[in-house]
Structure prediction request, 224 residues.
Amino acid sequence: DAGVIQSPRHEVTEMGQEVTLRCKPISGHNSLFWYRQTMMRGLELLIYFNNNVPIDDSGMPEDRFSAKMPNASFSTLKIQPSEPRDSAVYFCASSRSGANVLTFGAGSRLTVL
Amino acid sequence: RKEVEQDPGPFNVPEGATVAFNCTYSNSASQSFFWYRQDCRKEPKLLMSVYSSGNEDGRFTAQLNRASQYISLLIRDSKLSDSATYLCVVRGRSNDYKLSFGAGTTVTVRA
Prediction:
């Protein structure tokens, strides 16, 4: 099992640019989560998908953030336009529905200059 | 008030020592509890679930105190490889998808 795969692992971009982060969940996992981690705020849930459908996006900071899950094996998190305060590590995690355990990807470290 | 609160530490201990720390949670209806471990610049990984009667996994012991709404983790005979940040995680209801993460307690084990 390859685990949850995220790309890119690192991204450095300038303010105002569009950023797209990608995630491939574990095969057979039908729940997918996007988290953001910063020193100040810790791990924050941004959005939760179940069976490719967004169930809870209340954690998405603002309209600059959007997420999609076009199929069971792929999700994207997009920030447009990016701002320096978006600098963080973005984690994707997946699980089977109702399971207690989340498996996290290695994360995408974003720096917005 | 945060849903899950932890002492950030750091706890600096020598190899072989015992280290213990707690986390408190605010939702008295919380059903499931976990400890995740996060190494520096890595992703969080499940360390162990926490059961009502308390449970052990090797050198790690987890306890739950529902009356006082806290969870504890004790590490015996600590190893250098135990150096990490330990995240306390709480699920509200058994079918609730949301996990609330604490900010983590950092443990550093020195030779």
About this structure: Chain B touches chain A at residues 32, 34, 42-46, 49, 87, 91, 95, 97-99, 101-104 (CB under 8 Å). Residues 64 and 71 of chain B are 5 Å apart (CA to CA).
